[in-house]
Amino acid sequence: MEKIPDKQPPSGHLTDVHEFEKNRLSTLNEQLVQAEQWIDRRSREMVAAYGLAAAQARHGERIEEDLELVATVLFLLREDHPDFLHGQHNVVTRIDIPILPATRGAENVGHADVRTASPFPDLSVKCCSLFVNLYERALQGDTAKLLSIGALCINVVLAQQQLRSW
User: Fold this and answer.
1) Do residues 126 and 115 make contact, with C-beta atoms less than 8 angstroms apart?
2) I need a labelling partner for 125 at 20 to 30 A (CA). Which of 34, 78, 119, 134 fits?
3) Three-class secondary structure of residue 15 per DSSP
């Protein structure tokens, strides 16, 4: 008996993106572009404010400080998704982006001007680095999870550690 090929794409992977899904992916990409810009702007503001405050506090004292600035992006489930639970966190995944101390990596997260080819051939827009990082690393190519995202929560946190000596 001849075997009929399965017309369904493998679970979690999308080979033929439909128009509705293209729009959802384009919207997510645009939201991530705005998130990258906000993280970049907010990080610069926080570093500048910290620099002024630290300069005033150090005047005349011998203080060493370690500074860490991290942006965390939580990707939340759409409210119309069947797995959405009211009153729950509904986190699909998260990405932590180290900003300070400066790290050198291939992620390019936080550089809103960086665009790359879309991981979806049918998607005409170039994807921002945060989109690619989300899809390829955090979700490991799971398109169903990517399409389930409907909200973002972004935290930029400045952590300080101080060592005083005399």
Assistant:
1) yes
2) 78
3) coil
> What residue spans of the chain are helical by DSSP H?
19-58, 129-132, 143-148
Question: 104: which 2 tokens?
Answer: 């050198």
Residue 17 pLDDT: 57
Read off the pLDDT band of 135 (50, 70, 90): very high
pLDDT of residue 108: 44
Count of alpha carbons within 13 angstroms of residue 113, beta-carbon side = 0
**Band of the pLDDT at 123, cuts 50, 70, 90?**
confident
Please give the mean pLDDT across all residues of the chain.
80
Rounded to whole angstroms, the Cα distance separating 120 from 111 reads: 21
Rounded Cα–Cα distance for residues 79 and 67 (Å): 37
The domain spans of the chain are 19-164
